[in-house]
Amino acid sequence: MKIAVLGTGTVGRAMAGALAGLGHEIAIGTRDPQATLARTEPDAMGAPPFGQWLKDHPHVRLVAFADVAADAELVINATEGAGSVAALSAAGSENLAGKILVDIANPLDFSHGMPPTLSPVNTDSLGELIQRTFPEAKVVKTLNTMNANLMVDPGRAAGGDHSVFVSGNDSEAKREVTMLLKSLGHQDVIDLGDITTARGAEMLLPVWLRLWGALGTANFNFKIAR
């Protein structure tokens, strides 16, 4: 497939690299490609400048949000949750219409310091907000309950014996995303229901953050025993 990954951070790079390795045609979207390539300092997470990463991944292209979304068959939102709607708006609602939009972001709110809270939460979710804002897209929420390494290589924890969730209104879109998840190595894919169930998946983040602190590693995920 032609897949657009929106976001040049750790998650976007992980997803783009892994999916390109599976033979998909991958392009990463950013607001200003030239400005992104001009950066010479590590990013906020200490990762090398994007231009350096891109040289190591010659099969991945860097394109402006609107252009990459227009050309894609499937779009992955790997932007920071607080900026996701703005980034997707820059991609263009007309370029998202009728396409599967995989939302793997979390609505983290750092305005009150650490650890972050969620906004929206309880009666809404980022997945729902994106679906309302882009009603013609087929939004599927998934992968937000684990770190980037496990998203693309689930075997790094417990040999892959852990769970991943999907939420969305379109059953066929969820089926296609489930196939994509399994191609990455995910074994236990749980369909939570329509897009409102994304609230539950997103509300796992507060306990995820506490577990990260308690365990001293982000190399873990949730397993639903049944």
Structural commentary:
By secondary structure, the protein is α/β, with parallel strands linked by helices. The protein contains eleven helices and ten strands. The protein has an eight-stranded mixed beta sheet with strand order 3-2-1-4-5-8-9-10, with helices on both faces. β9 (163-168), α9 and β10 (188-193) form a beta-alpha-beta unit. It is globular, with a radius of gyration of 16 Å. The termini are far apart.
Low-confidence stretches: none
- Radius of gyration based on Cα positions: 16 Å
What is the helical fraction, as a range of percent? 25-40%
The major β-sheet equals: 8 strands, mixed
According to DSSP, the number of beta strands is: 10
Task: Choose one word for the global shape.
Answer: globular
Describe the structure concisely for a colleague.
The protein is α/β, with parallel strands linked by helices. Helix content is 38%, strand content 20%.
Based on the model shown, name its key terms:
globular, 10 strands, alpha/beta, 38% helix, two-stranded antiparallel ribbon, 11 helices, 226 residues
Give the helices and strands, then pairings.
Blueprint: E1 2-6, H1 10-21, E2 25-30, H2 33-38, H3 50-55, E3 60-64, H4 65-71, E4 74-77, H5 84-91, H6 93-96, E5 100-103, E6 108-109, E7 117-118, H7 126-133, E8 138-142, H8 148-152, E9 163-168, H9 171-183, E10 188-193, H10 198-202, H11 205-215
